[in-house]
Design a protein that fits this description.
- The protein contains seven helices and three strands; from the N terminus they run ααβααββααα.
- With 137 residues, the protein is mostly helical.
- The termini are far apart.
């Protein structure tokens, strides 16, 4: 399997992942290759090649219905990227105390804290990205 960082280094693959994320957030149960081709303005062979790489890295799953294939995001492999990035994003304020508090929690509470923390970081990133897109910024 390719290194996750090599897989997401390609802009077209990141565009596909973003499209699948957006459509999943909108309640879609999968996205057809033809829809991806149309949205990205890329050729069908190019999209298929990138989808194969994403499938091999377990970043997408495919559901077949007759002759149609519908792709969905499988974000779990991105946890490795998240784990690698977190130390670079940490501002250092109280991180030792926070780490000590989390390690003393029961497993279920530590997991819940991790989920909430990831959601907060994701929301912060989405907010900062939206702010940068505002006119005059």
């Amino acid at each position: 399997m390719a290194d996750i960082f090599d897989v997401i280094a390609d802009g077209t693959r990141r565009d596909i992942l973003r499209l699948l994320l957006d459509r999943s957030s909108a309640g879609e149960r999968g996205t057809s290759v033809s829809h991806i081709v149309t949205e990205l303005g890329a050729s069908q062979p190019t999209v298929s090649k990138h989808l194969k790489v994403l499938r091999d890295a377990h970043l997408v799953s495919v559901r077949e219905e007759g002759q149609h294939r519908y792709y969905s995001l499988s974000a779990a492999p991105l946890d490795e990227v998240d784990d690698w990035l977190v130390p670079f994003l940490d501002d250092g304020a109280g991180s030792d105390a926070a780490d000590a508090a989390v390690t003393s929690l029961p497993d279920s509470a530590a997991h819940a804290a991790d989920v909430v923390g990831r959601a907060a970081a994701s929301a912060k990133h989405a907010f900062e990205t939206a702010l940068k897109k505002l006119p005059g910024r």
